[in-house]
Design brief:
Blueprint lengths: L1 H4 L11 H19 L21 H10 L15 H13 L4
Length: 98
C-alpha cells in the first residue's frame, strides 16, 4: 500500500524552507514528547538511524500517517501530507536535524 500511497513522492520533491523548519519543530516537540526529546526513545521507541535501518522510508511514512493500532502512536494523516511524512521519514533515517 505504501508504494501506491507515495507514488510520485521522493526526496526530490522539495518542501520550502519554512515548512521544513515547521516539520523539524513538530518532530522535536510532538514526536519528542513520546520518543524522547533527542529521539533516543521513551514511551515510544528510539527514532535514530541505527534503530530504523530495517525500515524503508515509505514504511516509516506509513506509520507516521496511519499510527500503530494497539500502541500509543497516533495517526497524523489529515495533519501531514504524504510528502511531509516521507520528508520526515527520510530525515529520520539520515539523522534528524536539530
Amino acid at each position: 500500500m505504501a508504494g501506491i500511497l507515495f507514488a510520485g513522492c521522493s526526496s526530490a520533491d522539495a518542501l520550502d524552507a519554512e515548512r521544513q523548519r515547521e516539520l523539524t519543530y513538530l518532530v522535536r516537540q510532538d514526536c519528542g514528547s513520546c520518543h524522547g526529546m533527542t529521539l533516543k526513545g521513551g514511551l515510544g521507541g528510539a527514532l535514530l538511524p541505527e534503530n530504523l535501518v530495517d525500515l524503508d522510508s515509505e514504511g516509516i511514512a506509513s506509520i507516521i500517517l496511519d499510527g500503530v493500532s494497539g500502541k500509543p502512536m497516533p495517526p497524523w494523516q489529515g495533519q501531514l501530507s504524504n510528502e511531509e511524512a516521507l520528508w520526515i521519514a527520510e530525515h529520520l533515517k539520515k539523522g534528524f536535524p536539530q
